């Protein structure tokens, strides 16, 4: 069996005295689409941000392709890796956020090109070809030279997804990417993610779109108060929840 793409072993994260992640264990294989569901404050977004080293974590390990992320342990002493090394590791993952975080003074294509030029050291011409390819893939070929202010929220989020995927990450992280959108724009973004899932992209999604998680995920993880309470096949979990807490959550959610 091939080694896991992602492993979390006893992951712990604290803000001061508040423990947000209380020893999370999870393994993910190449090509899996895993949706993380749970109430607000259950640790879902924090977990994603630890994987991408946007947050430090105080205990446990995260491995991508068997490589320890963020920290080395030498003779039992935990040491943060150099910023250069962390930047290299951060490029193993792509992340799309609730807010689109586009540069307003750059066009859609220029937003996608920026990382390709700065990080991947591509020429402008090479970067433009890749940017156009991915903007086409998310249905925005005709908007390549439009600025964020000229785009709808759904279009801006699709540019942000194109920007992340253009960097060719091993794993895509999506953090509630539809939560800032008007309801009528949600579908266009979910359609892009569905297409990526069908192509075999490895994805970890924090989402409150229960119907989408049910239909698209190869696995669902339910988190509550900093721990994974239940995980498994979405059909099994959503139709026959194994814990009372998940049953309550689904009842209060949009899943019918």
From TrEMBL:
UniProt keyword terms in alphabetical order: Amino-acid transport, ATP-binding, Cell membrane, Membrane, Nucleotide-binding, Transport
ABC transporter domain ranges (all copies): 6-250
Superkingdom of origin: Bacteria
Keyword rRNA-binding carried by entry: no
Pfam families, per database record: ABC_tran
SMART domains per the UniProt record, alphabetical: AAA (SM00382)
Record localization: Cell membrane
SUPFAM superfamilies referenced in this protein's UniProt entry, alphabetically: P-loop containing nucleoside triphosphate hydrolases
GO molecular-function term, one example from the UniProt record: ATP binding
Topology of the protein relative to the lipid bilayer: Peripheral membrane protein
Family to which this protein belongs: Belongs to the ABC transporter superfamily.
Record-given protein name: Amino acid ABC transporter ATP-binding protein
Species name: Ancylobacter crimeensis
